[in-house]
Amino acid sequence: PPISPMAIAFDAENLTLSPAGPTLTRRMSDLEGLFLDTDAWAAAVHGDDPVVYTVTSSPVPEIDRELPQSITTIMPGHTSGELWMTKGHQHPDHQGEIYLALKGRGGLLMFDGERTEWLDMLPGTIGYIPPGWAHRSVNTGDEPYAFLAVYPGGAGHDYGWVLEHGMGSRAYRATDGVDLRPYSAPDP
Ligand code: PA5
Ligand code: NI
Questions:
Q1: Ligand (nearest to CA of 58)
Q2: Beta bridge partners of 74
Q3: ipTM of the complex
Q4: Residue 4, in any domain of the structure
Q5: Which of 73, 103, 110, 131 is the Cys-Cys partner for 117 at CB 3.0 to 4.6 Å?
Q6: Euclidean distance between the first and final Cα of the chain, in Å?
Q7: pLDDT (tens digit, 9 = 90+) per residue, 80-97?
């Protein structure tokens, strides 16, 4: 059945939606092949396999012509200096997307296969992801970094694209925010 107009209550303190859809939890083990230092990644997985981020969806279905939303919360941390981040993905049909930073400090790394772009994301920053740009979010601070995403319901997530092409840069912890280094494939 088609979905009806609705109000969704957003709790800015607890970063919850009500009503909400499913919440996805990504642990270190879900980020295989993404951090440069494979040994440090494996050690974290075989340790307590920490939660790196969660994604809480609104009840709007992820189908064509709908406009669902979600809130991603990335924990602060790093793996051999590489800041904790989302897996990153490309939208198969290259739809655009909008992010609004809510809490903490972060960055939005984008890559179109040739060019790489970094946007500092502070509460109130709207980050625009144009069609055809793969995107990954990074926590650059020492508290959780949260943002709202609004995306075409049929956008989908191509994670293989990022595994194959990388994101152009890697984001490392630095005293004054972030140190962006050229992408290199993970250690075998
Ligand atoms: O739609 C988006 O781009 C976001 O909601 C992401 O899916 C979310 O931040 C999690 O990142 P990823 O899907 O790359 O694991
Ligand atoms: Ni997306």
A1: 1
A2: 53, 145
A3: 0.99
A4: no
A5: 110
A6: 48
A7: 999 999 999 999 999 999
